[in-house]
Predict the structure of Protein GrpE.
Amino acid sequence: MADEQTLDTNPQEQQANEALAGDELAARVQSLEEQLAAAQDQSLRMAADLQNVRRRAEQDVEKAHKFALEKFANDLLPVVDSLERGLELTSAVDEASKAIREGMELTLKLFLDTLKRYQLEAVDPHGAPFNPEHHQAMAMEESIHAEPNTVLKVFQKGYLLNGRLLRPAMVVVSKAPLTPPPSIDEQA
């Protein structure tokens, strides 16, 4: 009879042991699933970081190519300014300086065409609204003929390199007159 009790308790103990082993296995499976999810998440994050680094590097290379000429172009702008001033000071009707003027005009045209080929654009805002991103106001002048904040004069052209400001245009900006203009008496 003692053997029967041992046999009877063994299946119960065995079931209890199997239940414990099942619980341990379930806990182990859950733990492994959590570790797998964490590893997958970490892998996705690292892939995203790598993609961001690649994208930033490509953008940096693109900017380096686009703006590599910035310093060189900046150094050439005074030459363009001098040619333009020289043309302003010479007379088109003076026969003595006619050949020199034509040479300067051709040189300036060649120079500007070359700058344009390398995406260097002049900013000549005469008559346009003042834009503080592209213009530098050197003075303000009262004007009854122009809207307030309109560019009246351009001292020096500005330039953009691939759409980015290289040098602002130096301008005179209009402002409203302090006293209103005298009214015309229509009855007189």
